[in-house]
Write a structure and sequence with these properties.
- The chain contains six helices and eight strands, in the order ααββββαβαβαββα.
- The protein is an alpha+beta fold and 185 residues long.
- The protein has a single domain, classed as 3-Layer(aba) Sandwich (Glutaredoxin), CATH 3.40.30.
- Helix 3 links the parallel strand 4 and strand 5.
Length: 185
């Protein structure tokens, strides 16, 4: 076998390994591919079940302050898991921001939980997108693991008693937000 043939086989093998890595590692974080299998799109996006207490956590915000979920009892809370590189996440931010501004006086808190990105990158992004709701840093992914986040964006809707009333997988629209807010406000 010539060196040229060996080199080409080595390149093909490398490409196969890269493709396998992409399928196994990158695809689960595909930012809501909107592909459905045997369940309808509405069933996929809204994962309503019997309300359960929200798993408590403490994360740092962009100012370095600790934010503890259980300290927000009495407020309506949306936990929105996102990342700067996620296109659907970027698309829903203006609607989340507008909902926050319109409802914060009614007791709404939105916690934008960024997954596994550094503070300086997230801080710049939040400033560029004019995000005024609390942005929390899940640097090691522990909280996203606790909430079983396998794709983003995903949002959890928590009522004033600390119960998860619903979750939504994928990009929230104004209509989606309006329906979900009615459940928790």
């Amino acid at each position: 076998m010539t060196e040229k043939v060996k080199s080409q086989k080595s390149k093909v093998k490398s490409l196969k390994l890269i493709f396998a890595f992409f399928l196994l590692v990158i695809m689960p974080f595909n930012c809501d591919s909107n592909k459905s299998s045997d369940i309808s799109q509405e069933e996929k996006k809204s994962q309503a079940s019997e309300p359960k207490p929200a798993q408590d956590f403490t994360l740092k915000d962009l100012s370095g302050n600790d934010v503890k979920l259980s300290s927000l009892k009495g407020k309506a809370v949306i936990i929105n898991f996102w990342a700067t590189w996620c296109y659907p996440c970027r698309e829903e931010i203006p609607d989340l921001q507008k909902s926050y501004e319109e409802n914060k006086d009614k007791g709404l808190i939105i916690l934008g939980v960024n997954i596994k990105e550094n503070e300086s990158k997230v801080s710049k992004f939040a400033k560029d997108y004019k995000m005024t709701y609390p942005i929390l840093l899940d640097i090691d992914g522990t909280i996203s693991d606790t909430y079983r986040v396998f794709g983003i964006p995903i949002s959890f809707f928590i009522d004033r008693n600390g119960l998860v009333k619903d979750s939504f997988i994928g990009m929230l629209t104004k209509e989606d937000l309006s329906k979900k807010l009615a459940m928790i406000l």
